[in-house]
Amino acid sequence: MGEITVRRALESSQNIPFVEMMEQITPKKAISYLEKMGITSLTDEDESLALALGGLQNGVTPLEMASAYATIANDGIYIEPTFYSSIVDSRGRTVMNSNQEKRTVFSEQVAYVLKKLLQQPVDGTYGTATYCAIPGIDVAAKTGTTDENYDKWLCGFTPYYTAVAWFGFDQNETIKYNSQNPAGIMWANVMRSIHDGFSGARFYQPSRIVTAEICEDTGKIARTGCTNTYIEYFLQGTEPSQCTKHSGSRVKAREDNEKEEENIIYTDDNNDLELNPDEEEETNTEVQNGNNVTNENIQNENTQNEDIQNEVGVPPAQNNTVANDTLPENDVVDENEIIDSPENDGNEEINNTPTGDGQIDEEAGNNEENGTEMVESEEY
Ligand SMILES: [Zn+2]
Question: How far is it, in rounded angstroms, from Cα 97 to Cα 146?
Fold first, then answer.
């Protein structure tokens, strides 16, 4: 694709620009950040340029991936994931607090620039995660794919929640799917549903962030002679110099007009995206029926959770992972209902049991045996 900006490379999930960036940053430095963001499964062999694409010896668990993305969402502060916030006895006395470890990994300015870049796969014309958009609420999201389509990922966050979805088999096997990343579909359906009734929200812009009009062709500050321009966000003092390909005086950055949407309340239409297995059209009728049932179930769920959702009007100071969100009493009741349902087989019962021991997640994301390599040129 020739010369390309980070924003455009991220939007369409290109590989080469990130390998080149890794060369500049060095894998050693990248690993030190990954570890500070809670990734514990890296090996000496991961100290290679393939790291830029997620080509890892042992893979990463979805839980650790969520903690790493939550570090960006939480303005550069890593917060150790937990499955509970506190335990109280029958008299309301606290028996145990979760005491999550916290540490600053990078500045809120760096986090903000990352957030704005990670919106591109959702908001960009050629974005690989456009179906993850939630109207009125900023969404940052990144897709991931491994060789042979063994693994599909969607990692992302809003000002309210961070969530990570992984889709694949315990033993590496090619995933059959039709057009859209199944992990992304799960992510979008769950995130839309849990944001139902939430106020419009934008990522908070800290001080010492500057915006600049950028020439698409050179990635430098636009002059009046540049025809293709867009707004980019920089840490103060890191803006590029002026375009060397076109002439004219420096173009002042436009104001972005996103602020107007802040007063709206997002209402989920319960129109879930469907997981599209690669199958023949004759199953259409069945899918339609199944869809109606699903929508009804979701509506019931929403009614039960209404009071929790209505309490939340503004983004929390601390972005939560979805794992944390299984704690409210109503949700636990929902989980039990699922477990008691005779329609579920044994495996699903285990997956839905809120034991919170992390074992299932660890096994699910682990490619230990075959060490798959990331290849992201194809997406969705
Ligand atoms: Zn130019």
Answer: 38
The DSSP symbol for 273 reads P
Model pLDDT, residue 37: 98
The pTM for the full model equals: 0.74
Q: How far is the CA of 225 from the centre of ligand 1 (A)?
A: 7
Please give the pLDDT value at position 77: 98
pLDDT at 230: 94
Distance 14 CA to ligand 1 centre (A): 22
Residues 61, 46 within the same domain: yes
What does pLDDT average to in each consecutive run of 10 residues of the chain (380 residues)?
91 94 97 97 96 90 97 98 94 95 98 98 95 97 90 96 95 85 95 97 96 95 96 96 95 69 83 71 39 37 38 63 46 40 40 35 40 45
Q: Which domain holds residue 124?
A: 6-200+264-364
Ion ligand 1 residues within 5 Å by Cβ: 215, 226, 243, 245-246
Which among 217, 213, 240, 227 has a CA at the least distance from the CA of 3?
Answer: 217
Is there a single domain that holds both residue 241 and residue 335? no
The residue ranges of DSSP E strands in the chain, in sequence order, are 77-79, 86-88, 94-97, 102-104, 140-145, 151-157, 161-168, 209-215, 229-235, 320-321
Domain membership flag for residue 372? no
Q: Let me know whether 52 and 142 are in one domain.
A: yes
pLDDT at 165: 97
Neighbours of 156 (CB within 10 A): 29
Residues 24 and 108 occupy one common structural domain: yes
Instruction: Quote the ligand 1 centre to 253 CA distance (angstroms).
Output: 14
**218 and 350 assigned to the same domain:** no
| Residue pair 58/368 in contact by the 8 Å Cβ criterion | yes
How many angstroms is it from 233 CA to the middle of ligand 1?
A: 17
Ligand 1 centre to CA of 296 (Å) is 53
Ligand 1: centre distance to CA 230 (Å): 11
- Position 190 in a domain: yes
190 and 246 both lie in a single domain:
no
Taking the centre of ligand 1 as the mean of its atom positions, its distance from the CA of residue 232, in whole angstroms, is: 14
Asked if 97 and 243 sit in the same domain, the reply is: no
Number of domains forming the structure of the chain: 2
Dist. CA 224 → ligand 1 center (Å): 8
Q: How many CB atoms are closer than 10 A to CB 165?
A: 24
